[in-house]
Design a protein that fits this description.
11 helices
Length: about 400
């Protein structure tokens, strides 16, 4: 499985083409739109969320509600495009109208891709960079992830994400209920937090940051149940499942770190308090008495819940902008402001779910025969039975 995304933040639409889905998988637009709506929620979101009501159109690869095995195209129209047709138009513009129409950006924003992206591609107008580097692109990453989540669910694998920290405020809930309960509780929380008291403090911190023209980041956690053991590989570095998951998390806009299970806390503990003892019983087969390693050993899933966390830095677009340098005049300026959120951590937890779902689904499709959903399900069931009796 693989996918490619295309589109600019203020362009006419965002598009993704997905290849490698099994044929015969049920898929309708609503499966995707539910996830797109989840991404747009959250305390601290900016005005863009009131402008855009993201809806996916399935343009290929699906007939009468089932995948065909051919590439699936998903498109999300940008409703705000009507206000940007001149600035972001495809056709050439007259030279005398260029400055008026293009709204040229020459002041790179600290923390963004503006300056380095301009250097890389030779863009003197940094709108050419910021339009694509925008987190708006995660819209269609969530769409692709929604398709992956649907496939995983059909294979008995469930995913839930939640926020554990925002702006230094930490959730006190350190043991999680069932996946279903996490999904229910977080959907009712404006910050997707399992701890109501901490959730309120997080919202207060977001409000204070907004009042001060600042932004704050946080930590999200994704939990996966039902993943069969042995997906991934210990043989080659580029096939290790934890490596793929780590790459997926830090590829999300503004994410700067990732950990599994106990994560960096392992550096402060002896091995006896890090590794998970193996147990076996007739009903469930092999299990671990703890899950400190987060469901991954030797680059493979071990059958325990996969637990992965990512840290999101504060959004760098600030309403009290930091200093920068105009690339044309080389004079010091305060950085230009694009419409932004004061905190996007709750939405980022939805994006993280999508990123994790995609990597897990892709790893399964790579490892097992997957041309037909019916055969894939039978193969996974047979493999689970084998692993339990090993």
């Amino acid at each position: 499985m693989r996918y490619l995304t295309a589109g600019e933040s203020h362009g006419p639409q965002l598009t993704t083409i997905i290849e490698g889905l099994p044929a015969g998988m049920p898929l309708i637009a609503e499966d995707i739109n539910i996830e797109l709506a989840r991404r747009q929620k959250g305390h601290g979101r900016g005005r863009r969320m009131q402008i855009e009501k993201d809806q996916a159109n399935i343009l290929s690869g699906v007939r009468h509600g089932y995948t065909l095995g051919s590439p699936v195209t998903l498109a999300v129209v940008n409703n705000d495009w009507k206000h940007w047709t001149k600035i972001m138009g495809i056709e050439p513009i007259a030279e005398e109208a260029e400055e008026e129409i293009k709204r040229k950006v020459t002041r790179p924003r600290p923390g963004h891709a503006d300056l380095i992206g301009g250097m890389k591609y030779g863009h003197r107008d940094m709108r050419n960079v910021l339009e694509r580097s925008s987190a708006r692109e995660t819209t269609v990453r969530v769409a692709a992830g929604a398709v992956a989540k649907k496939l995983l669910k059909l294979l008995g694998i469930e995913i839930a994400g939640h926020v554990t920290e925002i702006g230094g405020v930490q959730s006190k809930v350190d043991t999680y209920p069932s996946i279903k309960e996490i999904q229910q509780i977080t959907e009712q929380s404006p910050v997707r937090c399992l701890d109501d008291e901490a959730g309120q403090k997080m919202m207060d911190a977001i409000d204070l940051a907004k009042k001060n023209g600042d932004s704050i980041g946080g930590i999200v956690e994704v939990i996966v149940e039902g993943m069969p053991p042995g997906v991934g590989s210990y043989v080659h570095y580029d096939r290790k499942l934890d490596a793929k998951l780590a790459r997926a998390i830090v590829s999300i806009n503004a994410f700067k770190g990732v950990e599994f299970g106990l994560g960096f806390e392992m550096a402060r503990k002896p091995g006896s308090e890090v590794h998970d003892e193996i147990v076996w019983n007739k009903d469930n087969g092999y299990e671990r008495s703890t899950n400190r390693l987060g469901g991954l050993e030797g680059g493979m899933s071990n059958g325990m819940p996969i637990i992965i966390r990512g840290v999101m830095k504060p959004i760098p677009t600030l309403y009290k902008p930091l200093k920068s340098v105009d690339i044309d005049s080389k004079e010091a300026f305060t950085a230009s402001i694009e419409r932004s959120d004061s905190c996007a951590v709750p939405a980022a937890s939805v994006v993280a779910e999508a990123a994790v779902a995609w990597e897990l689904a892709a790893a399964i499709v790579e490892q097992f025969y997957s041309d037909r959903l019916e055969t894939l399900k039978a193969t996974i069931d047979e493999y689970r039975e084998y692993a339990g009796k090993f």
